[in-house]
Amino acid sequence: MDEMSKLKHLIEHWVEHNEEHAQSYLDWAGKAAEMGRPELAAALKELAGETQRLKPLFDLVSKECV
């Protein structure tokens, strides 16, 4: 496998994990809210949003690896 193929594979892996992490942050935000920790829940939701905002950058680098 050449270096570009490796990079494309890594980017796909990172995208998947990024999406999983964002969902995990949202899941834990719900749990934090249930525990009466609204500030923590809000911070985790913000973290999820920031994580999801990386998607366009991942899309860009993925297209560049063609």
Task: Provide an overview of this structure.
This protein is mainly α. The protein has three helices and no strands. It has helices at 3-34, 38-52, 55-64. Helix 1 (3-34) runs antiparallel to helix 2 (38-52) and helix 1 (3-34) packs antiparallel against helix 3. The chain is elongated and about 50 Å long. The two termini are 14 Å apart.
Helix percent reads: over 70%
Order of helices and strands: HHH
Number of helices: 3
Work out the strand percent.
under 5%
Q: What does the main sheet amount to? A: none
Terminal-residue CA separation: 14 Å
Pick out the low-confidence regions: none
* Structural class category: mainly alpha
Overall average pLDDT: 95
Radius of gyration: 15 Å
Shape: elongated
Question: How would you summarize this macromolecular structure in one to three sentences?
Answer:
The chain is 86% helix and 0% strand.
Describe the protein's topology.
Elements: H1 3-34, H2 38-52, H3 55-64
Task: Provide keyphrases for this structure.
66 residues; mainly alpha; 3 helices; elongated
